[in-house]
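Regression test attached.
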Amino acid sequence: MAKKKRTQPSPPPAAPKPKVKLPERDRKTLSEIEGLADGVVAAADRRRDPHVDIPSRTLSNVRYNKSKRFIEMGRNTNRRQLFNLSQAKSFMQTMLVASGAKQLIEEGKTTSIRGLYYLLKHTIEGTKEETFADQKESDPIIEDVEVLLNALREELHLYAQKRGDMIGPIILVDKGDEIDCSRMGSGGYGIPSIVEPDIIQFKSCQAKFILHVEKDTVWQRFNEDKFWRRHNCILTHGGGQPPRGVRRMLNRLHYELKLPVYCLLDNDPWGYYIYSVIKQGSINLAFESRRMAIPDARYLGLRSIDLDRCGLSDSVKITLNDTDRRRAKQIAAYPWFQGKAAWQKEIKRMLDNGFKLEVEALISKDISYVTDVYTPERLAEQDWLD
Amino acid sequence: MAKKKRTQPSPPPAAPKPKVKLPERDRKTLSEIEGLADGVVAAADRRRDPHVDIPSRTLSNVRYNKSKRFIEMGRNTNRRQLFNLSQAKSFMQTMLVASGAKQLIEEGKTTSIRGLYYLLKHTIEGTKEETFADQKESDPIIEDVEVLLNALREELHLYAQKRGDMIGPIILVDKGDEIDCSRMGSGGYGIPSIVEPDIIQFKSCQAKFILHVEKDTVWQRFNEDKFWRRHNCILTHGGGQPPRGVRRMLNRLHYELKLPVYCLLDNDPWGYYIYSVIKQGSINLAFESRRMAIPDARYLGLRSIDLDRCGLSDSVKITLNDTDRRRAKQIAAYPWFQGKAAWQKEIKRMLDNGFKLEVEALISKDISYVTDVYTPERLAEQDWLD
């Protein structure tokens, strides 16, 4: 095929385009990025080695803040220097990611973390050295830049894969479009990965609480049975471990609309961990807890007593494996679970049972047992773990 | 925790509930299921061995129908008998899945394939035998029942995981809710897994074509750049290999609204294969081709000439591995690609290149190169593979 004429050659990536006035959030992030660059220039001017001090994202540098009731980062940092053979590359990669974020913000565009990798990947002039060998190199640098600038990934104009839906009596505005989440057909409203207040505003809400379930298949059951209509709630799921957009949405709904959050998850270490992340934040993203964690979230089930309590058949048991047992013990040792007798009992019983239970196991009672009986009973009896 | 009183004991699963009049599609499926059961009774009455003949879902039993231009199932069947030690279990599992579908249809409910597994899993009375050891046993039986009854999975009231979104100037009705797909904010309309005409109706459509992209991250780029508004099209993605709901939606949009379908996929064997499935149907689900395949779908890119044609940097190449090479050769040998010189050249060039290219690689030119330059040029020049 003949080579095509290109009437509009693409501009060189670095050329800043004339832009409309940036939103305040973007201006704040830009000034953080410029501050980072200024630091390098200042060091050079004073003939010092340019460096950045990156807050350390390790277990030893997170702590559970008992008064805020979520995980916070400590103050340990790792120094990354330009004139250090083992750190020069990652120093330059750090600057490159920051400059990529600057470009995205200035152009008013967002991209995926894979997109940023491609945006920044090139062979350094005069060498055979690539800026990034593969995405495994750029992803952790993105997290470094997040903590360095104290900015959410979304504020760097980057997004993760979209996952998770919501439905219920709430009207919101998403990029100017009014979305009535009670009139979304069978599919619901797909929760975007960037849900900050300048993009999404809550217009009106009749719901009294949020029911968050683990998987879309369980969510479908609740949706099909119109649980959210009968119980006047917002129904969400996060496709397993909820991505940042879903966690941030839950956090905003909880704090801005004063809606309690109830979680219905599998009775296994993975379900416990999802609850832990929703409630207290995650270790890896501890710097985001202030905008993600929901310390008052409640764990509605499934519980390790449910095989007996609900009279389920032994057929639905799934035997614990070694990983399950190890994870369960780790979770029981989390500081935020340690002081809680009910949680210790819950986890111990699962270990003693020797099996886990998925929410879907309730189907063996009746297709709609989970929506007709299980969840309404838990809510009516205020029977949950905290 | 004390055992709870249950005021509403759940009904036994088999008890049919009084039902409203079923839609015609459900009545047809039910009569197929009853026909299956009648066959067993008739055999027993005549003192014959009950059996079912299940169309074989193997490569040797599919053929490319040149006039219909999609993959069809052949007439080979495998007999499954009750009184055969090696087949008795799967015979009974087949009946069990059919009876589970009957229950779902009669109750007007749907569930996931995992849900059906739990619904049907139990210990057979008086034995230690489980109906299904795990979901790996029930999933293929579900496909058997689909071909046996000539019914789509969705017609058995089963759904797969939801994946894929759409946006654009089309208004549809989903379970009675009117959805304006041009006013869906940043997230778009999540394509449900069941999109049959009794659930989803098209109300009005201004779009002139459909652009289907592989991944949600690429879809986000097109959505953010309002490509669908500038080019008056519907924008869809299937999160990789599109699930049935997305394929069926594309098929309905194509045939009912006369919209051409253009595919923008990665330049790798996986991208070629996605195109092949959208266009000709898949081998495993050949019995569904008549409602899934879109023989006139077009492959817009990426092409194996694109590194040169678009002047991309070598950095974006991803080296082919052995699996890629083997898959590429398999795909080149598909009957529906064999007679096509352009496709043979395309695949050969990729193999000669020794590398693959993701759509995201175009970002290295400019963040919006794919929406501003690449796709408009291909469309304007009618430059695609067929």
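Expected vs. actual: identical. The first helix of chain B runs from residue 24 to 45.
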